[in-house]
């Protein structure tokens, strides 16, 4: 038992130090330093400190307990030996959980650090329960959120603003989930009626340079704004339904040069592009996850590992989308001059 006692003591000491380091990082996070300064401070002051919570003894105890219970069940003779094995197994499992160190504090820190770094890097804010209640853009203003015949849900993920040619463009990134009841091929020529889930992502961006323009690859009926249009590009016409409220605005927006760029950006983010006819608000829904975080996950043991992880955090889909949308806004003919994205 002395070796077991030593292991328990070492694990407890290790975990207490890890919790102390986690709380020091939390205090540093509360200072709201610029992200590069924050990472520099971590490397400078705590590089070799560990933050890994060790629950090895818990895992080993649970594994031994499950093996013991399994052997007892296999014997299945209701003999004293079988009952003893099951009892011993239960004791090991209970003991394992009794020495388990909770991971909530570490998990919460990881989540808050990731959000903090990304918010600083891209100058946006993730939605919380509080600011969700304060959002002003209404999805009912757009006809694109009724694709599901069973269920339609919109989850607002993050919000911010871009400054483009002296014009501020507030935006929201969202996830749109819907459920359709439809016939699904099963096998051997058989079809079944099933609920199928779909997941899409998109942006609502205010003050787009023009009003009442729609390019649709999927929800063509919902996106029809009345005045139909065909560009000079036959291939583009085959892929996208084009409509608007003014032939003049359609002709200006869908110029041959812009068609080439629109096809490029719509190939990267395929879906439905819809500018509200009265409010100049763009609603663009695509099947690319705009909120996907690329973090090169690996084992984080020390604060140095954590610093490397935070430094590599990125949202490549969001970056590319923002860059392409900026270019589109700058090159779109507008009634008043609009300025390049400074905040991306």
Automatic annotation (TrEMBL):
Keywords: Membrane, Transmembrane, Transmembrane helix. It comes from the Bacteria. The chain crosses the membrane at residues 62-95. The keyword Transmembrane applies. The keyword Transmembrane helix applies. This is DUF3137 domain-containing protein. It comes from Acinetobacter haemolyticus.
């Amino acid at each position: 038992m002395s070796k077991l006692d030593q292991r328990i003591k070492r694990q407890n000491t290790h975990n207490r130090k890890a919790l102390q380091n986690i709380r020091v990082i939390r205090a540093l996070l509360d200072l709201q330093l610029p992200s590069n300064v924050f990472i520099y401070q971590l490397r400078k002051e705590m590089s070799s400190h560990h933050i890994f919570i060790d629950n090895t003894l818990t895992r080993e105890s649970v594994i031994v307990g499950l093996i013991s219970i399994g052997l007892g069940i296999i014997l299945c003779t209701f003999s004293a030996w079988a009952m003893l094995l099951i009892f011993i197994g239960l004791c090991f499992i209970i003991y394992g959980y009794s020495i388990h160190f909770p991971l909530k504090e570490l998990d919460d820190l990881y989540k808050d650090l990731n959000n903090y770094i990304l918010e600083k890097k891209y100058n946006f804010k993730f939605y919380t329960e509080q600011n969700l209640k304060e959002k002003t853009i209404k999805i009912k203003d757009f006809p694109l959120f009724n694709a599901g015949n069973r269920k339609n849900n919109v989850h607002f993920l993050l919000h911010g603003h871009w400054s483009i040619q002296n014009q501020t463009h507030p935006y929201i990134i969202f996830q749109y989930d819907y459920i359709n009841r439809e016939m699904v091929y099963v096998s051997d020529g058989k079809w079944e009626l099933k609920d199928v889930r779909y997941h899409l992502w998109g942006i609502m961006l205010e003050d787009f340079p023009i009003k009442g323009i729609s390019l649709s690859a999927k929800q063509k009926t919902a996106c029809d704004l009345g005045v139909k249009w065909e560009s000079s590009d036959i291939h583009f016409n085959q892929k996208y339904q084009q409509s608007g409220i003014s032939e003049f605005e359609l002709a200006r927006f869908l110029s041959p040069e812009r068609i080439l760029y629109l096809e490029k950006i719509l190939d990267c983010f395929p879906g439905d592009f819809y500018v509200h006819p009265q409010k100049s608000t763009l609603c663009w829904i695509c099947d690319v996850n705009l909120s996907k975080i690329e973090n090169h996950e690996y084992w984080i043991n020390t604060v140095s590992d954590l610093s490397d992880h935070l430094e590599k955090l990125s949202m490549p889909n969001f970056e590319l989308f923002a860059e392409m949308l900026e270019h589109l806004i700058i090159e779109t003919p507008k009634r008043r001059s609009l300025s390049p994205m400074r905040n991306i």
